[in-house]
Amino acid sequence: xxxxxxxxxxxxxxxxxxxxxxxxxxxxxxxxxxxxxxxxxxxxxxxxxxxxxxxxxxxxxxxxxxxxxxxxxxxxxxxxxxxxxxxxxxxxxxxxxxxxxxxxxxxxxxxxxxxxxxxxxxxxxxxxxxxxxxxxxxxxxxxxxxxxxxxxxxxxxxxxxxxxxxxxxxxxxxxxxxxxxxxxxxxxxxxxxxxxxxxxxxxxxxxxxxxxxxxxxxxxxxxxxxxxxxxxxxxxxxxxxxxxxxxxxxxxxxxxxxxxxxxxxxxxxxxxxxxxxxxxxxxxxxxxxxxxxxxxxx
Length: 298
Known about the structure:
Distance between the termini: 36 Å
Number of domains: 1
Structural class: alpha/beta
Oligomer: single chain
């Protein structure tokens, strides 16, 4: 039986290179949302888990989420993806492309190349479109294409939703990371690790039912289910352990340091980061609790 979690599922939950969602008129009132209130002696920080691509069904949000955003003076996100400029686009091309004359076909096995070609074909693309790009670019492309094929959009993500509102309303926007950081993270894996990630993704393509269960966990605030989705060993391959550590643990520690700075302030902050960053022993919520801050799921 196929492992439930794949690297692709982790990418959906932790990397902001894509994002998506739109609006519906139905109201929702889950017992819990995927939102936490973190309190210090001087202020409150709200931390919301995000899914970077989604569907219209995710909207509108629970009142607890909208109310927390409304009373916050500041919005903090992994990356302000609404402000991506040509410099970042050029960086993606420079970092993600092979040197002239070198191709994906030259760098992966014939079997894997054939499998990637098959997967891209099923998603309406041809491998020739990505043949000059490194495996990490191909992996993130497959992620976005598969989510799009399931009906999820890259136009109105959870983080994008609040970024658009913050820009319109004049709230201060703080980046916890940067697009350059995220690109360098993906590009920084060795060729061997990038190929292992690509293999994992094409051999363990998530089904729509599995993706829907991810959204169910988010909408009902089911931390245990989200933890199972985000933190289960993706493939049983120990060589992929450092990938999970880089995608999650190491970034969590950095984000916690910045959230602690917010907690020393007297203004209120609304923080939106990938949902996988919030769960588990090394998740942001647990790490803040261990540091003595009050944490309550709303």
